[in-house]
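Minimal example, chain plus 5'-O-[(L-methionyl)-sulphamoyl]adenosine.
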Amino acid sequence: MSFIITTPLYYVNDKPHLGSVYTTIICDAIARYKRLVGEDVIFITGVDEHGLKIQRTANEKGVEPKIHCDEISEIFNVSWGNWNISFDKFIRTSSKNHELIVNEFYERVKASDDIYMGLQKGWYCVGCEEFKDNPENSSTYKCPIHQKNLEWKNEENLFFRLSKYQEQIERIINEPSFIEPLERRNEIINFVSRGLKDFSISRTNVSWGIQVPDFDKHTFYVWFDALLGYVSAISSDEKGCSLEKSINRGWPANIHLIGKDILRFHAVYWPAMLISAGMRVPKKVLGHGFLTREGQKMGKSLGNVLDPDLLISKYGNDPVRWYLIKDISLGSDGDFQDKRFVDIINNDLANTIGNLLNRTSSMSRKWFDNKVPNIEKISSENKLENFAKIAVENYIQKFNIYKLDLAANVVLNLAINTNLYLNENQPWMLIKEKNNLPIVKEIIYNVLESTRIIGLLLLPLLPELSSKINDQLGSIYKKEIPWEQQLRWGLLISNSCLPKPTPIINKLEYE
Ligand code: MSP
């Protein structure tokens, strides 16, 4: 059985911003974790290339939409490489295979008698690619997300009979595990309780899209097209693409991780479309919050947009990952503050984890011939071993319910407790007395062993830092042995060589 996890398919109106980096990093951490615990993961990401918003962006640049999309899609692809994102599939909705899927899906929905022609009137936000629920003062009403005026639309469109699925959708969204976290679920329950209205799935004024069969002037509404990207990503290969193949390869998705602004599409429209086409609905929609900058919404007009490329070149990958994963509770809004960022990285990663490893390895090398000490007897009561065992259990429990911030804090706490243990026991004092040698060996072994476990627990969260910790401990992590087995206490080998320590992370300066 596959474990399918998806990021949203990002609009290619611009290159990735910190919001898209955030979602993608969280998905990456979950995907890495699931692989480590033995799941056959399909991690899907990609780009949403059609629709009015992209058509206009290309027009404003004076280039063909296809050329524009090629350029920005490539930037996304390269960027995810720079961020060390372990995706398995990158889907472009302008690809031929994707078009095949949209057409096949449409035929199924039509066969269920869920498509009809109607008149679509309403106020539209091009930024959201969405009709807004009837704001009164309309032409002066700005979309709260994009801060732009809405546009009046009045045209013949094909509609999807969403209203037919009221009861089924109610049943699905009331399943406690379907939408998380709880606030998001309540939002959707409220929305659905007001009664579902059919929505239009074609456009006559947008040429940059997939043409609707038998309706020359109509292209598919970008959301009807884009959501299917998740399905086409699974089966798409050089031999083509089909719904049956996607189903055979493991559809439905286990998790759609998305921002709160696009919850309705994923938790209401999408399941109804899938039921209509005779397909299974996703198992979970996980809605995260929004990132702000120093308390303000990030926006070009405010001049406070954080450029992810700059962040990565200035600080590297893992510090940004740590901040986004550990400091923001998944589901709540989060704020990126420069000073806080620097403090957190210096405290957590450089001082608490990096320094612990560095100084313990140095002591071990100095006193025990560049090696891990050879422990003869392990005292019956081992405080650190108990801490580590509890930490491993807690970490797995938190990760399994996608509380990544709490899982990260478990690792940090283990490092804090390991530092405390070292400071309480003061092996640098004990070593002065020859008789203390066995106990010093034991203390140093315990600290190094705890550090090994910290490194392993960091593998899904901070893959680069984790691999540096592993190098410093003599490369003892074995890919071929199940990760969970290697979390057992006591696997660090006595007398094994310790390489010369180098700092695993540099302290950051606040400018
Ligand atoms: N193309 C659609 C998704 C189609 S999925 C089949 C789309 N794209 S988007 O590029 O506008 O947004 C992608 C994701 O980025 C959304 O989940 C959105 O919530 C998220 N974010 C956009 N700005 C954000 C922040 N400032 N902070 C966190 N995430 C934010 O919607």
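The longest strand covers residues 115-125. The chain has a mean pLDDT of 93.
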